[in-house]
Write a structure and sequence with these properties.
221 residues; alpha+beta; 8-stranded antiparallel sheet; 3-stranded antiparallel sheet; 5 helices; 19% helix
């Protein structure tokens, strides 16, 4: 099975140390500067998480443009796409647990892809993401069934790229160690009108939309 086939079959890929190591300190600083309490967001955030507004930070935007990641996003979406949203998040000690869920495609399967870029080491002890490989193409699924769950672990600088219909969830931060990350959303071109209609609701502050064409992303995986 080649890498493209495996990506479509599993619905995700984990890029190890994809973020240059010398970017990480700046990314962590940007996260801390951008933290806002729940009541300062248009839609209140969960109280057991820290959320950070950092979509205008230049180093964060550089992460969003990493060629290896964009190649995977383009392979999954399969048409021209754009950067829709960027938001930092971190589970607090004793918090962060989520039930398995999908973020849901909008008009067709595969029209939205998310990437979760980790700024700190992550694993079962500090609330790392868990996923169900292959579940993005299984319409009927018991969200309470965790028999096929894979608990991710890895290092600061890793990036998880996944189809939004893939079952996934945050886990409980048992030890309270730092697990800062940024959630990046890429939408297919037909979703641009609806994206514009919900900018304020999602508190998006990016002044310029980044567009990408799979045909011009030359770095493969």
């Amino acid at each position: 099975m080649d890498d493209c086939e495996q990506l479509h079959r599993n619905g995700y890929a984990l890029l190890r140390r994809a973020i240059p190591a010398d970017w990480l300190d700046d990314l962590r600083t940007a996260f801390e500067v951008g933290v806002k309490p729940s009541d300062q967001w248009p839609v209140p955030r969960g109280m057991d998480w820290r959320h950070s507004q950092l979509d205008s930070d230049s180093t964060v935007r550089a992460v969003c443009r990493l060629p290896q990641m964009l190649a995977m996003v383009g392979e999954l979406i399969g048409e021209r796409f754009f950067l829709s949203q960027v938001e930092g998040r971190e589970p607090l000690a004793g918090g962060g647990y989520q039930q398995l869920h999908r973020d849901l495609s909008a008009q067709r399967p595969g029209d939205i892809v998310n990437a979760l870029a980790f700024f700190d080491d992550y694993g079962p002890e500090n609330g790392a993401t868990r996923i169900v490989p292959g579940s993005h193409r299984e319409p009927a699924f018991d969200f309470s069934d965790e028999s096929r769950v894979v608990q991710l672990s890895g290092s600061a600088g890793d990036i998880l790229v996944f189809d939004v219909d893939l079952l996934h969830a945050g886990s409980l931060n048992l030890v309270g160690s730092r697990r800062r990350s940024v959630l990046i959303s890429y939408f297919s071109e037909p979703l641009y009108a609806s994206h514009l209609e919900t900018l304020s609701l999602r508190n998006i502050q990016m002044e310029k939309t980044d567009w990408f064409d799979p045909c011009t992303i030359y770095q493969r995986f």
